[in-house]
Specification:
About 5% of the residues have low confidence. About 60% of the residues lie in helices and about 10% in strands. It is α/β, with parallel strands linked by helices. About 30% of the residues are buried. Strands 3-2-1-4-5 form a five-stranded mixed β-sheet, sandwiched between helices. It starts with a helix and ends with a helix. The chain has one domain: 3-Layer(aba) Sandwich (Pyruvate Kinase, Chain: A, domain 1).
């Protein structure tokens, strides 16, 4: 059985750890508020530019654009977005597991032929995929230390250049999307070639509702070609913002759970300390009584 000093030391250690988890929860909560604000500001623009691109793509032939035209898939790139730091629960392990399962299920033959490249945003994903022997097309560590739009442009540029040079014929992104503080949502999205929104037969048979007749200047194809790089850059930016917000939410929830667990551990250790102290007092009393009885018999 642990001594009183050992139990006191463990209680003190757990209380110090609890102070750290409380502080980390408060820091994560402050970062989450800022991250949510940035994320919510980016969502409408990303949605609208995607809708506009889809509208134009359905009205003209855009297959001349190499970033939209489909290809025969002879190689694949997967962008996996994780965090640089841990202490955020299953945030990283879930997205890494999803990415690996997706690659193994969808691109088994290409993986065996060495035709699958992984672009890792975040140290956690980079470490795991490098240890597992995956071909790393690029790794981006420290992105969240100074999260600016230029970071997204740099990542998008490198991924797009590889696609245009024929290093791979399809690019997908696996990341955490912010849904709520307690529950992020893992999404797998196609990045390149840009998926076209094809209207179903039922929708196409419906008479079009009266609306504004837009006049495009310059031509529609020129607008599409101008929108495509903006769309791709902003998609990466949105993914980074969503993942960062989800990371802070996961860290806040993990630190809250750790603080509650510390409370339970302190209560358990306090109970053990009280029992040990009571046992020590009882032992001392028995020794005193035993000594008094021995003195009586000796007298």
């Amino acid at each position: 059985m642990a001594t009183l000093r050992e139990i006191r030391g463990r209680i003190s250690g757990v209380r110090k750890t609890q102070k750290i988890t409380k502080a980390m929860k408060m820091v994560a909560a402050a970062k989450l508020r800022r991250a949510q604000s940035n994320m919510m500001a980016a969502r409408p623009y990303a949605k609208k530019i995607k809708e506009l691109l889809a509208y134009l793509s359905n009205s003209i032939d855009v297959t001349t654009n190499p970033l939209i035209a489909p290809r025969e898939i002879r190689g694949v790139a997967v962008v996996v977005v994780t965090s640089d730091r841990g202490l955020c629960g299953a945030f990283n392990s879930n997205v890494i597991k999803t990415a690996m399962n997706h690659i193994n299920a969808q691109y088994t033959a290409l993986l065996q032929d060495g035709k699958v490249k992984v672009f890792c945003i975040g140290k956690k994903g980079s470490d795991v995929f490098a240890k597992r022997g995956f071909i790393i097309g690029g790794k981006y560590i420290g992105v969240y230390n100074d999260l600016v739009f230029g970071q997204a442009q740099s990542i998008a540029r490198e991924v797009i250049n590889g696609y245009l040079q024929g290093e791979y014929d399809k690019v997908e992104i696996v990341s955490n999307e912010f849904k709520s503080v307690a529950q992020p949502r893992i999404v797998v999205e196609q990045f390149l070639p840009i998926p076209r929104e094809v209207k179903d037969a039922e929708a196409s048979n419906k008479p079009s509702s009266p609306g504004v007749d837009y006049i495009f200047e310059p031509t529609q194809i020129e607008i599409v070609n101008a929108l495509v790089p903006r769309h791709l850059n902003f998609q990466i930016w949105k993914v980074l913002l969503e993942s960062y917000a989800a990371e802070q939410g996961a860290r806040m929830a993990a630190m809250e759970n750790a603080t509650e667990n510390a409370n339970e551990m302190i209560s358990s250790l306090q109970l053990a300390y009280n029992k040990a102290r009571q046992a020590a007092i009882t032992k001392e009393l028995l020794e005193v009584v035993g000594g008094a009885e021995a003195l009586k018999k000796a007298g």
